[in-house]
């Protein structure tokens, strides 16, 4: 088994000192793994991701309990640029690219930061050519202003620019959001290539369980701010509840309930026949 | 022709002052209302180089410019840095307070009477004949030359240097910049530094022509329409704004009444705000932030 890169231990995040968003979250990622975090809207996935990347501080939230250990150091409540320099890169749901900068400048921003970054990735330093190898589309667009890119190209640029900071852990929030299925498949394949070529760890937050579990090694499922299920991707994919509530198999159309509701429903059925 | 020469001088002066407003706004979204005072600090520093250290013109200018840069960095580091995360409105109020504070401090240190840095650094300011009956002062030519140099330099800086691209990145999206490992303080401090440097330069050159007293801060205020006309977040807009506002002012002096001249920039501003509230070259979405 490869060594532990990220370990989130019993983390609790509170907004404005009042609202608890996630509680007792435990999550681990080993070096070179693709890990996915599934859950419906408001489950606390993004909050967890923001806690790891240091961004909750900007949203008047903080980690009030537990530890976030990255490469042996507790980085809970560290500033975002500190987390970035430690080797954590985030591709956020919104705010992916600098719209007024060209594709090339967007990528170079990442390299600039990568220079100040730590010894980061194990392999050779990536350069622009390395990124174009994963995303040949970007080479053609190099002078284009990023604000004029399509959704898929933006996502590629965001991932490329994040990779150029030489991360050891790449966090991706909603890879598939608003993208055509064929583009999502293309991106998912690229992520597997990136992991294989660079050996970095990828933590993927997704609502599309199918695509996430198809490339992930391990998965976690969140509901109401807690992890309710975890396991190897293959096992999760075969899990009845996942099939019913994330893949929509066997469930009546338009009838989507939360995981917790399912449990209660199943229990009721057991009790009352 | 004399009209044209005066027009270009005034436009260059406005442009030189305006780029400080644009720089700070673009990077931090804060509209600084202390820029006129920062400009005065530059002029007074030049005066001090002469009275205290008896430097000849060129070294005096260089020393005063470097000190202006430091003043800008210090303003960010000591005051504006603490406004990170606060609302833009609060930050703008802080710049007003800073302006009042600076003005008071300058009156205490340098006294409010009219003084002439040109004498202090023994700089001659001869009138230069440009053929025919047209003549401008040497300082005016320097103002035009520095405006061209400063803008040319800034355009190259933002296009081709690491720090320039970083400043654009932080200005557009500080969060994403942080995600890419850029600490916001460096680019922000640099924006304030360059703003103080260019504003200081404008103040120095202007003081060579007209001397310096408290009234100089009013020029800073009059530049405000220039920036708003051009669009707050656009350097090229600032140039156009300077040309438009200076044009209106010069025409008012010659054809209406010199007394109207002080009002002319604000009349232009009103007209533009009614037609294009985000300025000629500004970004439309910026409007709700002001």
Task: Report on the architecture of this protein.
The complex is a heterodimer of chains A (273) and B (290). Chain A contains 11 helices and 10 strands. Chain A is of the alpha/beta class. Chain A has a single domain, classed as Rossmann fold (3-Layer(aba) Sandwich). A 6-stranded mixed β-sheet of chain A has the order 6-7-8-3-9-10, with helices on both faces. A 4-stranded antiparallel β-sheet of chain A has the order 2-1-4-5, covered by helices on one side. The longest helix of chain A has 18 residues. Chain B starts with a helix and ends in a 15-residue tail after the last helix. Chain B has 13 helices and 2 strands, in the order αααααββαααααααα. Chain B is globular, with a radius of gyration of 19 Å. Chain B is mostly helical and 290 residues long. Chain B has a single domain, classed as ABC transporter involved in vitamin B12 uptake, BtuC (Orthogonal Bundle). Chains A and B meet through α2 and α3 of A and α7 and α8 of B.
Task: Give the topology.
The complex is a heterodimer of chains A (273) and B (290).
Chain A: E1 4-15, E2 19-30, E3 34-38, H1 45-53, E4 61-70, E5 73-74, H2 80-86, E6 88-91, H3 103-116, H4 128-134, H5 136-140, H6 151-163, E7 169-173, H7 181-198, E8 201-206, H8 209-215, E9 218-223, E10 226-232, H9 233-238, H10 240-245, H11 259-272
Parallel strand pairs in A: 3-8, 3-9, 6-7, 7-8
Antiparallel strand pairs in A: 1-2, 1-4, 4-5, 9-10
Helix pairs in contact in A: 3-6
Chain B: H1 2-28, H2 35-53, H3 57-78, H4 88-110, H5 117-120, E1 127-129, E2 135-137, H6 138-160, H7 162-172, H8 174-179, H9 185-210, H10 216-230, H11 235-256, H12 258-261, H13 264-275
Antiparallel strand pairs in B: 1-2
Helix pairs in contact in B: 1-6, 1-7, 1-9, 1-10, 1-11, 2-3, 2-4, 2-9, 2-10, 3-9, 6-7, 6-9, 7-9, 10-11, 10-13, 11-13
